[in-house]
Amino acid sequence: MTAEHDERADRTSTLYDAVGGADALRRLSGTFYEAVLADPVLAPVFADFTPAHVEHVAVWLAEVFSGPADFTAELGGHQALLRAHLGLSITEEQRSRWMELMTTAVEKELADDELLRRRVVEYFDWGTRIAKDVSASEPGTDLGEPGPTPRWGWNGLA
């Protein structure tokens, strides 16, 4: 099989399949949060961190990348994710550091595929901007109906 053929095959799959499914997303999440909890800029944001957070993030990413919709079915969906960020007061410095650590985790845990890595990092850039905006609101703020969990693919937001 040529590299050209492999690339076409990868682009017809979902990002969920291309990243390697649930196991790869768990590894990505675990590697990322290991770095976050040791980071002086980000550790304070995750003061209430529990090991379940790693799994919840992996389940969220699976759904966003067109895998199983378990975050919506079992963990409260898009609304729950947004509410979890209320009151965190995320700064741009923290958001930027989050992106640095996640980019490093993506490079370590995902296949050596420039387009795949770029699309995944673009999702995180988009998502962290929303998280930062939502985090400026007080806990309990009515966020309205955010709609279903977003889907992210080879062309960005689907």
What does this structure look like?
There is one protein chain. The protein is mainly alpha-helical. Helices cover 63% and strands 3% of the residues. A hairpin with a 2-residue loop joins strand 1 and strand 2. It is globular. The protein starts with a helix and ends with a strand.
- Return the string of H and E elements: HHHHHHHHEE
Q: Could you say which overall geometry the principal axes of the C-alpha atoms support? A: globular
Q: What structural class do the secondary elements suggest?
A: mainly alpha
Low-confidence stretches: 1-10
Bin the helical content: 55-70%
Over the alpha carbons, how many angstroms does the gyration radius reach?
A: 16 Å
Strand order of the largest sheet: 1-2
Q: Measure the end-to-end span.
A: 30 Å
Number of beta strands: 2
Tell me what portion of residues adopts beta-strand conformation.
under 5%
What's the average pLDDT? 93
DSSP summary: helix tally:
8
Largest sheet: 2 strands, antiparallel
